[in-house]
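Hey,
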Amino acid sequence: MLPTDEPVDVFLADGRIADIAPAGALPPSGEVLEGQGGWLVPGLWDHHVHVMQAALVADRIALGDARSAAEAAAMIAASAPLDGRRVGSGFRDAFWSDTPTLALLDAVTGDIPTYLINADVHSVWVNSAALARERILEHDDGILREEDAFEISRRLNAVDPTAADRRVQALARSAAARGVVGLVDLDMGWNAEGWSRRAAEGFDTLRIAFGVYPEHLDRAIAEGLRTGEPVPGDTHGLVRVGGLKVITDGSLGTRTAACSHAYPEGGHGLLTVGGATLLDLMTRATGAGLSCAIHAIGDVANTAALDAFAATGATGTIEHAQLVSRTDLPRFARLGVAASVQPEHALDDRDLTDSVWRAQIAQPYPLRSLADAGANLLFGSDAPVSALDPWAAMAGAVFRTRDGREPWQPQERVDLDTALAASTAGGSTAGARIEPGATADLVLCESDPRAADEGGLRGMRVAATLLGGRATFAA
């Protein structure tokens, strides 16, 4: 935010802040955006989005309110097929009293291929017609997990490019209306193709950094992709290469996150990438000029990821860091590894954490602990897992509650300034600043974020969003 509460005029030129002066001290020139006493903050980023999956949510049946497997099955069965399939998303089965089964889903969905995507995207419940369509010949319970589930999501996300780009543009406009100027796209596909196409066609709503997955690493290296460099044909210079994304364990919701202590039903989750393989991937990426974004949720996975960063000298992030050993907390800063975290997940999962992870001794959803240890926090949503809304992420981090409940693990709350910086390009230790010479990525808010309560922060009204001094949203 501006380092003053007094009214000021901010002058922009060539995409940057040229000057900041007391209101009325300098004559205006050129186009004028009247702030009307609003509050100016740096442009906001979402550091973890699955863009295509999030863009397609509007076409899918929302299953977040389903209280049982039977209810979820009935909800999807009552929906009209789209393109010969029924697709729903957002169910959370951890507290269901009944079990999702192939027989249950088949009984109500018949011969129409039906797909129910878990809120955490790490499992998909399908019927026999869907198994046949996907040519999965043998399956007992209709629940596809981890890589099998990811493959189904990739297939469901493979829509016509024209339709895909139209949905992505709608997502981008919606994000800009919430003050977003940039995001990190970690969709599970060859993202270079889609973003090169959109850039060449003039996409100009957001700054984009896109991830590369291990199955595409050889191609990325062969094509000379390097973190931070623009994609060919991008006339606006907004779309750039991100890092290598590696998923090393499962999730809390699917009970596959790799943990040091057992789950109530037994098992410790699983590491989905072996140590030697992870070292090889990160070494090759680093040598080719790619940073690394390592998905690690359980404490065992976080330790393994930090060990790999230490061994390879790679730069980048750990994505999620939802359960972290206290001895690992200071290693983030020591190794220069940013913690890319999603504060709303803590509230989505508070009851699940208290139940499923009650035997764990590592710290769940650490924010204050990571910040106090010097780690750079980068906030995101993991959309569509949570809404692409940085104000909700900030509210979750600052208040650790929603819906009137008592704050959960309130010792892990952070202050608004930390949350706001974590929601900008540089993160909590290097947040964007409003000062002469800075890039003019700015958000004009109708009220003071520092004075907002939890509901006010979630509902923060954005009057305008500027990307390089150009309005991408104006109320």
